[in-house]
Amino acid sequence: MTTQSTTDFSHKLLFPSKEAAKFIDVSDETLRRSRCTGYLLGAPAPKHIKFGRAVKYRLTDLTDWVNAVDENGVEGL
Question: Quick check: helix, strand or coil at residue 10?
Fold first, then answer.
């Protein structure tokens, strides 16, 4: 028997802002604010793409951000 996790992100390439925030474990408001400031938890914010008013994040950009934060030892993660 297989079970599918509610947080299985492996099948997606682009994430809306709320799902991207969940993926990197921050609030949607914090991620939204990072698009204005350019920083998230003291590190450069992950890249985002705008489609009209919709904001999306590439899976590769999110994982690159997490890896960079981990390597640089930014507190909070």
Answer: coil
Give domain status of residue 1, yes or no. no
Q: What is the pLDDT of residue 6?
A: 54
Q: Cβ-count burial of 66 within 10 angstroms (0-12 exposed, 13-18 middle, 19+ buried)? A: middle
Task: Tell whether 33 is covered by a domain.
Answer: yes
Q: Which residues of the chain have pLDDT under 50?
A: 1, 76-77
What pTM was computed for the model? 0.76
Q: Which SS3 state, helix, strand or coil, does residue 37 take?
A: helix
- Identify the domain containing residue 66 by its residue range: 14-72
